[in-house]
Amino acid sequence: MLPSKEQHFTAWAKANSLLIHNLHLSSIHGFGRGLLATNSIHVHDLLLEIPSHLIISKETAISHPIIGRILLNEQNDFVDETFAMVILLLYEKNSSSSRWGPYLKMLPSCYEGPLYWDDNEINLLQDQLLYYKVKRLVIELKSYYNQLLSPFLKKHHKLFGRNIPTFSDYLWASHTIWSRAFQLNTCVMIIPFADMLNMYVEDGTQSSVSEIVLDTTNNVCRFFSQREYSKDEQVFVDYGRKPNSEFLVFYGFLFENNVGNQFLLSFPSLPTPSSRQHTLLKEFNLPLECEITKDCVF
Question: Among 4, 64, 99, 253, which residue is least crowded by beta carbons within 10 Å?
Answer without folding.
Answer: 4
